[in-house]
Amino acid sequence: MYDSAADLARLLAGIDQTTSDPTRLRERLVPELRRIIEAGRAEAEQRLLRERDGLACARRLCGQMDAVIRAIYDAVVKRLYRSDNPTAAEQIAVVATGGYGRGTLAPGSDIDLLFLLPYKQTAWSESVVEAMLYVLWDLKLKVGHATRSVADCLREGRADMTIRTSLLESRFLFGDRALFDELATRFDREVVDGTAAEFVEAKLRERDTRVSKGGASRYLVEPNVKDGKGGLRDLHTLFWIAKYTFRVREQEELVEAGLFTTEELRLFERCDEFLWRVRCHMHFVTGRAEERLSFGLQPRIAERLGYAARGGLTAVERFMKSYFLIAKDVGDLTAIVCAEMEARHAKRPPVLDRWLGRFKQRFRSTSLEADDFRIDNGRLNVRGDDAFERDPVNLIRLFWLADQHDLPIHPDASRLATRSLSLIGPMVRVDREANRLFLELLTSQNAPETVLRHMNETGVLGRFVPDFGRIVAMMQFNMYHHFTVDEHLIRSLGVLAKIDSGEAKDEHPLAHRLAGTIRNRRALYVAMFLHDIAKGRKDDHSLAGAAVARKLCPRFGLDAAETDTVAWLVEHHLLMSMTAQSRDLSDPKTIETFAKVVQSLERLKLLMILTIADIKAVGPGVWTAWKATLLRTLFYETEVVLSGGHSEIARTDRVRLIQMRLREQLGDWSAEAFDAYAARHYPPYWLKVDAPRQLKNARFVREAEEAGRTVATACETDPFRGVTELTVYSPDHPRLLAILTGACAAAGGNIVDAQIFTTADGFVLDTITLSRAFDRDEDELRRASRIATAIERALKGEIRIADLVADRHPAKDRPVTFQVAPDLAIDNALSARETVLEISGLDRPGLLYELTTALSRLNLNITSAHVATFGEKAVDVFYVTDLTGTKVTQPDRQATIRRAVMAVFEAEAGPRRSASRRAEGGRGRGEAAEPPAASPDAAAGA
């Protein structure tokens, strides 16, 4: 075992007792101290891997740093600036503050030091501090430092809450102990005494600000272990509050103070150790103070922690589930502390909350006081600790009442509910009253998302519905889903409730109107709650989820017809999204196939609403204007089929209304000119392109024609979405798709969206959306112009795109984070005219260019392309024919296509595989990939 103390002692012994040159001292100290620090960290890492104790590792690293700083202090004070008979001014105390003051240190953490002086800085103290800091800086340590007198510390602590918190955690290292004791005594008496309420308010407000910046949910799939909700900083905040309010010094004293029970203290310690273990591993793996548990890190940390695949979950998914359960426990502890602060009047509710509490109590307490519940300071609480034991259904009734009366739940009631989870057994789960209350809560008109989330965090929801309990804290290891499965389900219910109530009416007018016409409202809400409940199982989660629905719906009180509807919705909850994004909606066969599965207008309405809520709840930016347009088009086209040729708005009428709105915006166009322009576009153009883009396209085409240009391009930036739009107008060309994708690939263009349409007179009108490469518009537009010029020159035959792509610099090796097995499905039943190639695999730069080039070399005519990206997974669908215009039916020809497509993925199966989001590439005719996040106005309509 490495002995750093012995090394440090030998180092000090070898330093000249009378040295007076700071530079020579540093030259002597720094190399040896660096070696000692590196050896100590290596030892700490090995013991962490062996002993699996994160808190012990953090304390060990802190102890090693204490010894290093002590050696520096001794060398400076006893060798360099030795004072055998120091005056009162020649006194100093070296104090650890902040995280270092807690006695724990991660490998990449800052070292926070306070150089405490008697009254003011002297030449001697200035020299000592400077010499110590130079050594620490030469060691490449991140040092936060302050040099203050006791009076300075007290004054700064009173004025600044961050400094006050840092002083709260101060720890004496060495020097003049009397100075530190004076600071500690006066700090308690002059700063802390009588200010607990102020401190608690400030710390909780600071926490709210911190977590809102990082994403308010503790279930983000790439969490910040230090500052995220449910992370280490939350535990630190709890201990700060306890130390300040109850004047405790050690965690064990929290039980004596009455803040935690013995079990809750053990939970606190378990959370603390786990989070420290994860954080230390992250710092060791990355070699820096990395706090975000990214997708790239998660598999490596899971392996170091010893997780293995089990029960349908991968090792990394099991690790992340453990992480999120710990984050949930941290949330429970936070609620406990808040409740205790309120009980002891350390934190009073805001004035508005107190007024609302009195208002609610006056008008709503009558129905509650007679039962097992009461209103306590404007919040719903139980009347006694036996409320749940006396009647376990009260565990469900608590949340039902909170929703019915629009009341927050008192933390004491939440705490008691968590302690009483064992009361929810088989008898409660089948209890008719309990299920009636739960169904009413689930389908409430009062937007039940908040109450259901609280129900989940207390553990009641997972206990009452064990199938839901299986997916609590479960993450899916991919780049598409932003939240854990349980959080996604609860968020989707929140989106559904907003559509239903009209709160999202402006954003989703069609869905809101449909919600008012459906007959199966209860079935829709239950299906929303269950649609992903079978995630993590070996079977397809849609089919397994339908089986779960058939089991649970009768228990909830749904009749046979409602149960069938819920099961159908769960089984097909991905159908509408996949059809809209990866099929040619102008092909009657697509609509016919989709309609055969849906079978009724009621199901179509339900599926439309459920699909929108599901997509929106995936994460920020996933719902876009392009998806809204595609879903709306699929809905209207299918409505015609299911209604026997009748629709609320016939297809021709919809096209005419769209054209009329555009005509009104083009006031300087003659009627003849507009009619001629409108006749050039097929109906899919009018139905699939949003109004702002239609207006831009009309003006762009007119300007090109007036200038006598048959090939034209235009570029503009969109600051709101952070993208650049490139519009191309050109005669149709057999290799147009390859030219567009190749020009973008050669220039490193990251295509995130494209809309490509052919006109009736043989032209194409393409809008390509690229992610920005430069912050300044001038630089970004210059880059886009180079891409546009390359496209124009290629279309005119002046250059070969293949040459440009061949000249591009190869990408650097990229680490493999995700594995997606490539696949090709060849289907001749999905379209009446074309063969459909559905290609899926790991997304990477240049993928679309290589796929379209491979298909062109096989003399396949790509009539339509539909590209969707789900995080790291690309799903590209091409409608193709042979050069004779016929389907590809010969087995040997299909085998050739398969080999060519697989070769594209195999060429990149080595070190250059990427976990990046969709980069260089292109889109095909007709449909296109999902664009980046659009403005609310642009995404409205579905």
UniProtKB/TrEMBL annotation:
InterPro entries: ACT-like_dom_sf, ACT_dom, HD/PDEase_dom, HD_domain, NT_sf, PII_UdlTrfase/GS_AdlTrfase, Polymerase_NTP_transf_dom, UTase/UR. Residues 725-802, 836-916 form the ACT domain. Residues 909-942 are annotated as: Disordered. Its cofactor is Mg(2+). Residues 1-367 are annotated as: Uridylyltransferase. Its EC number is 2.7.7.59, 3.1.4.-. Keywords: Hydrolase, Magnesium, Multifunctional enzyme, Nucleotidyltransferase, Repeat, Transferase. One of its GO terms (biological process) is regulation of nitrogen utilization. GO terms for molecular function: [protein-PII] uridylyltransferase activity; phosphoric diester hydrolase activity. Residues 485-607 form the HD domain. Uridylyltransferase (UTase) activity is inhibited by glutamine, while glutamine activates uridylyl-removing (UR) activity. It comes from the Bacteria. Has four distinct domains: an N-terminal nucleotidyltransferase (NT) domain responsible for UTase activity, a central HD domain that encodes UR activity, and two C-terminal ACT domains that seem to have a role in glutamine sensing. Belongs to the GlnD family. Modifies, by uridylylation and deuridylylation, the PII regulatory proteins (GlnB and homologs), in response to the nitrogen status of the cell that GlnD senses through the glutamine level. Under low glutamine levels, catalyzes the conversion of the PII proteins and UTP to PII-UMP and PPi, while under higher glutamine levels, GlnD hydrolyzes PII-UMP to PII and UMP (deuridylylation). Thus, controls uridylylation state and activity of the PII proteins, and plays an important role in the regulation of nitrogen metabolism. NCBIfam families: PRK05092.1, UTase_glnD. This is Bifunctional uridylyltransferase/uridylyl-removing enzyme. It comes from Methylobacterium oryzihabitans.
